[in-house]
Amino acid sequence: MLIIDVRESDSIEKALKKYKRKFLSTGTMRQLRKRKNFTKPSVTRRQEVLRAEYRETLRQQGKLDK
Question: Domain residues for 35?
Answer without folding.
Answer: 12-61
